[in-house]
Amino acid sequence: MSENNVNIYTQAKSQMSFSERIAAALPGFKGYKEKELRRESDKLVRNHLVSKLTRVKNDVRSIFQKITDKRCLDILSDMDRLTAKVDRVTEKINHASYGYRGFFDVIKIKEENLDNMITFDNKLLDYVNALTVAVDDFKAQLSAGDYSNLQDNVQNVTDNLEELENTFDRREEVIMGVTQ
User: Fold this and answer.
1) DSSP code at position 122
2) Looking at residue 75, what DSSP letter applies?
3) Measured distance CA(145)–CA(41) in Å, rounded
4) What is the CA radius of gyration of the chain?
């Protein structure tokens, strides 16, 4: 587990109530509780990603509005697709699996795979940050009154978003332990 993952997991573990600590000491329950803490830690990481993506989504809508106000009609359909895609990717990350499997499922999710899932989701932050920079640059250019290269800017943001989505789509393989 990376240091950041250890911190999130350790913090979650340290915040257990007295009754949760007693229950966690019971044979059979301890492993269940630790898996649950890992899942909750991962949810915290993904909530942070979704928060950043929500800001990106709002910025893309703001950009779309500025372009519409300037009547740059040739780029509106691309902006519409970009807005929809940001929405879709944000919701995909927000509603992603926690790594649960039923008791009788053939494939079980092990603690190490849950740790890999947390690490994977932490790495997604790099992709979200790159997307944020691309959107911020685009927004700054429009704020400066520069409406040249609209197509290049839209393509740059779209490429960053697709890279994030393609990486995120490999998440299920990480949960299953197929890749890291």
Assistant:
1) H
2) G
3) 43
4) 20
* Model confidence, pTM: 0.73
End-to-end CA distance of the chain: 12
Three-point CA angle 61, 67, 70, nearest 5°: 145
Closest residue by Cα to residue 46 from 98, 110, 115: 98
3-state helix, strand, coil in the chain (%, to 5): 80, 0, 20
Q: For residue 17, how many C-alpha atoms fall within 13 Å in the half-sphere facing its CB?
A: 2
Q: Which residues contact 78 (CB under 8 A, 6 or more apart)?
A: 151, 154, 158
Q: Which two tokens stand for residue 135?
A: 């959107």
The structure tokens listed for 11 are 């913090």
Residue 101 parent element (H or E)? none
Residue 117's pLDDT band (cuts 50, 70, 90):
confident
Range from 4-13, 73-82, 157-166 carrying the lowest mean pLDDT: 4-13
DSSP code at position 102: -
Cβ neighbours of residue 59 closer than 8 Å, sequence gap 6 or more: 135, 136, 139
pLDDT tens, residue by residue, 52-105: 999 999 999 999 999 999 998 899 999 999 999 999 999 999 988 765 444 444
Contact by Cβ (8 Å): 67, 154:
no
